[in-house]
């Protein structure tokens, strides 16, 4: 027999209304939101590194300014998301500990290297493109603070995606060497960006419950389809080839047929064995330790202000 609170929760979900921090919610709903939102926040923060790698070497002042703004946006996204997670009763310190101790997950995609400038284009076009497909439906997530944070994040991601597309377009209009550089970067990022959407539907343990709670609105495979159908015409405009010889549109089903994603590689990356996992984590840990004095100074300042206010 459901309690009155449970019935109210179910009713809010059924009527497309929002669950807010002070509302009653099942413990499992709270837990799954903390899991997803904190992983998402960690992804934004770790996601600053592959591109941060190119800030000092951007090919012009304008490119540098744009890249700095983008990486700064990612820090901002991380902060909104940590704040949204905090409304569920976990602290920033707990989340940070989980990240730097290697216990927390963050998106697989940020464990790949960025050897050339063209990777900045491929990340913007493919990684931010995938992020948009995944995150636009999250603007309607049933948990209020998460859905609202996603609205602003998605607007910024759209700009990020266009700037990536424009980097690739510029390279594709350049010399033969530049065109090759752009194609190589697309070859590097295409498959990992497809894997970002998560395991296939029949191997996605969280999807059914998250969809019933209206946190997720579409399945992992459904979103992957949408992503590919967005990419195909854009790849044509760019003049790049998507590195999947099996990719074709099936008129009968109205869906794209695609080659098999390397799920072994994906699960290896999740276990910490991707090309850059160790480096990403080490960098974050060092930054956290070196930033200790800032946190201490801020806490001390707040303490003094509070004393002053009392006096
Ligand atoms: N990487 O049962 P499911 C960005 C895990 S965009 C690592 O399907 P769920 C913008 C999953 O957590 C990137 N782990 O799980 C940007 C679960 O493990 P758990 C971040 C993955 O939650 C651009 C297990 O596999 N975006 O940052 C991945 O229903 C450029 C089973 O999977 C988000 O986080 C993966 N790719 O669906 C920044 C979006 N996929 O937790 C900088 C919000 C799955 O049980 C530069 N999150 N796993 O131990 C989501 O939409 C969902 O959590 C999914 C996974 C779709 C990622």
From TrEMBL:
EC id: 1.14.13.149
Entries under Pfam families matching the protein: PaaA_PaaC (PF05138)
Top-level division of the source organism's lineage: Bacteria
Keywords: Oxidoreductase
GO molecular function: phenylacetyl-CoA 1,2-epoxidase activity
InterPro entries: Aromatic_CoA_ox/epox, Ferritin-like, Ferritin-like_SF, PaaA, PaaA_PaaC
The protein's enzyme class: oxidoreductase
UniProt-recorded name of the protein: 1,2-phenylacetyl-CoA epoxidase subunit A
Organism (species): Microbacterium sufflavum
């Amino acid at each position: 027999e459901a309690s009155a609170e449970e019935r109210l929760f179910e009713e809010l979900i059924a009527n497309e209304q929002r669950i807010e921090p002070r509302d009653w919610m099942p413990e499992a709903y709270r837990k799954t939101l903390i899991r997803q939102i904190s992983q998402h926040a960690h992804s934004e923060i770790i996601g600053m590194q592959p591109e941060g790698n190119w800030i000092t070497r951007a090919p012009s002042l304008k490119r540098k300014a744009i890249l700095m703004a983008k990486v700064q946006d990612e820090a901002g996204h991380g902060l909104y998301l940590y704040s949204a997670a905090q409304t569920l009763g976990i602290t920033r310190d707990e989340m940070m500990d989980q990240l730097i101790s290697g216990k927390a997950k963050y998106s697989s995609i940020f464990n790949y290297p960025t050897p050339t400038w063209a990777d900045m284009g491929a990340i913007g076009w493919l990684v931010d493109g995938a992020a948009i497909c995944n995150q636009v439906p999250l603007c309607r997530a049933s948990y209020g603070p998460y859905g609202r944070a996603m609205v602003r994040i998605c607007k910024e991601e759209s700009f990020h995606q266009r700037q990536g597309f424009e980097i690739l377009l510029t390279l594709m209009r350049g010399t033969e060497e530049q065109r090759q550089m752009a194609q190589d970067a697309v070859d590097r990022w295409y498959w990992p960006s497809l894997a970002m959407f998560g395991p296939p539907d029949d191997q996605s343990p969280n999807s059914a419950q998250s969809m019933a709670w209206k946190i997720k609105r579409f399945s992992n495979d459904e979103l992957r389809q949408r992503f590919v159908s967005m990419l195909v015409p854009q790849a044509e405009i760019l003049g790049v080839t998507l590195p999947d010889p099996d990719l074709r549109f099936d008129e009968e089903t109205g869906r794209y047929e695609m080659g098999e994603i390397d799920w072994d590689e994906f699960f290896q990356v999740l276990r910490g064995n991707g090309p850059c996992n160790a480096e990403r984590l080490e960098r974050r840990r060092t930054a956290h330790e070196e930033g200790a004095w800032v946190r201490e100074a801020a806490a001390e300042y707040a303490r003094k202000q509070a004393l002053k206010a009392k006096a």
